[in-house]
Amino acid sequence: MTVALVYPPTCDPTAPYLAVPMLTGFLRAHSVPVLPIDANLEAFDALLDPGALSGIAERIDAGIAVLERADALSHEQQLRYLALQRARADAHAAARGIAEAKATLRDEARFFDEASYDRATRIIDAALRAISAAHHPLHLDFTAYRTPFGLLSQDEIRRMAAPDYDPFDAYVNETLIPRLRQTFANDTDGRRGVIGLSVCFPGQLQPAYAFAWKIKRALPDVHLTAGGPGLTQMMIRLSGSALAEALGPFDSAVVYEGEHTLLALAQALETGASLRAIPNLVLRDPLLGARYVAGHGMEDLQGLPSPDFDGLPLERYLSPRLTLPYDPTRGCYWGKCTFCHYGLAEVGTAEYRERDVATMIAHLRELSTKHATKHFYFSQDSVAPKTLVKLADALIDSGLELRWGTDLKPEKYLTAERADTLRRSGAVACALGVESGNGRVLELIDKGAPVRVVSDVIDRLAAAGVAAEAMCFTDFPTETRDEALDTLRFLDERRDCIAVYIVGEFGLTHGSLVAQEPPRFGVREVWQLAGDRLGLSLFFEPIAPWKSDDDRAAVDDELAELSRSWTLRPYPWAGAVSTAHTLLHYAELGPGVFRDRARGGDAARHGAARSLDEPFEAAVKFDLARAALAERREAETWGELVSVLRAVSREAYAGLTKSYRPLRASPARFRFAAESAPEALSTRPRGRRPSHAHNATRR
Length: 699
Ligand code: SF4
Fold this sequence. Notes:
By secondary structure, the chain is an alpha/beta fold.
């Protein structure tokens, strides 16, 4: 009986992720046949295609034509009209440029040529904007898949899984399901087979459900299950009928680390044994709705085999060289950071575990030889620095000559000598959890490393020739404007040592200590929205605001200024923290590549100045500047739903928006260029000289 393991979108298509290979290795070691499918890669590969994107461009044009048949647009139609018009030029540029863009990312020479790389990634980003608009109200990128009501309930998930809204529908129905059907038809043992969807990141949740509804309809006899951190973190907070609703199309779900639970499930289905006693397996229950028998949620890492990548299309990733993930450790040895809810744990992080160093070397040797690659990302929550140095010593002795990167908590243990050991073992990058450059905030976060230590570790890594990446965020509860600016100053003062950085914004998660003890962090109240049946929303109100809007704008301005010193790009492109493309750039061009390129301001600047495609002019029936006002009303509407009504539903939304005035036709001509908002070409003459008063708003 085959177990098909499916990794759904939306994630990084530049390198394989660890989850499916880990499970594959474990099941195969127990003689269970596995079909691993990176549906994220396959679905994006199918979508980022000249033919598919020409279809998207036609769909956008057709959508505009339909809306322009009306005399006036409702609030929701205005939002749709705006999205379609804004994506017109992106869609045409993407359809024309996508073949070359993908070829560039897979070609060794063009990948490292800055202008070629820059154009390729911009084309793909334009494609994602066009795909999103064509499936309005979708927002799709490589980390997020969002529709306003999409994850409220299974009804909403199914509604948004229709072809009009789901860009992956054709891939699922025409490629994935036929392959699964064929696989199970070839199973001669007469068993039902198992399909498991691996949901690691929040952006996979909605596509995973959409995939599952379609698979279940097509293959009703196959046992459909799901697991992974993205699903576990949601399911372990639910019980009874809410848990049953969360199961949706799935026959079962695996919570926490899944190796033994999935094996027990496959064996029970094989032998016809009851599934009821399998620990951590969520099942429907006639009395309770759904439930699971709680079991030990953490695997003994020492007993687990190497991840197994056989069967994945390793040559199809959008990279010229394969970067493989490997997990020397699991969990976090520190586990105290108060904002953190990471991986497969109810609160905070999973318990820390390590593989034996000799085993790590044996696994890495085998993977490197088998897949002919030297590039690895050690994918782990947070590795103990002592263990990392031991691994580095062993890598030096092994003669493997790998090039590797990992995430790391700054510790004073990382002396200059040890940083040099990391470099000699092949370390090209360490992404450091800096969090904040302000001492008080860092203490409240409980990072266990004062600013001085963080700074020293950055200096030592940089001096050793290892790219030191800084991961920070602003807006931790109680952080003032000056404290946020301390973080930006920290980065600025170390601009010669920091390879790239990210400054995110604090987001409250259910399993963080902030959510467990809100008053300790200046938080008055934490709430969820009525109508959110899967319990995914979480909002909070400070006891006293810690920043004004002006303060936030000042921080944003400083951040924009700071970013001029690096060539930063969004995930998963080169210039983002902890990505395969970034790692390859360091390995080929050195740890200072993203600073040097910003200083040089050469090819990428020219590339950025060059349009992706020829701009064009066109008439529009509805003035886009007026339609854009609908976006402000939309934001106000959601503010009312979230903060005042604290409830979300289509009915509540319709109740608030029904009084909004429709937009009447007001023809105009606009200029359309990829990556830019459409630009009005003329304004109606009013017979007056324009006012030059500083507060003039009339045009
Ligand atoms: S932020 Fe990193 S170091 Fe801190 S608890 Fe989470 S995984 Fe561990």
